[in-house]
Amino acid sequence: xxxxxxxxxxxxxxxxxxxxxxxxxxxxxxxxxxxxxxxxxxxxxxxxxxxxxxxxxxxxxxxxxxxxxxxxxxxxxxxxxxxxxxxxxxxxxxxxxxxxxxxxxxxxxxxxxxxxxxxxxxxxxxxxxxxxxxxxxxxxxxxxxxxxxxxxxxxxxxxxxxxxxxxxxxxxxxxxxxxx
Length: 180
Known about the structure:
- By secondary structure, the protein is of the alpha+beta class.
- It contains five helices and eight strands; from the N terminus they run ββαααβββαβαββ.
- It starts with 7 loop residues before the first strand and ends in a 6-residue tail after the last strand.
């Protein structure tokens, strides 16, 4: 079981920072989930070198990386990044997240992402979080809506995935409207 130095805990899951000790587990989860991730995330690099580059990104103040773990086993059930953190007058960041095939559909991401949102507003002192989601990704759209995010708009050709520019819906939540 990986480190249990949790930042926040809910009834079934807890959130901690992503660490080097997570490589093998995340690589196996990503391999088993490649089919569900490919459409939304594109081809992903799951090598030790790629994982190290990912960890290095989280050493900068503009990026934070977390894993969502089950209390009962410490098993990783999801991952959440807060990217492009801007301080000063904006105090905002952009969410990226992934569930894994073996545990999808059980509410773990709702609970875990809710914890990360709370962490972002309370501990990281952000004011706003944004999630950009492809319009056909109904699971992800439903997830952010359950957590109180509001649809703000539509971004044409927002992100290059699988060889083409993909449209995204833009959803956001601010500290003053987030559930307590």
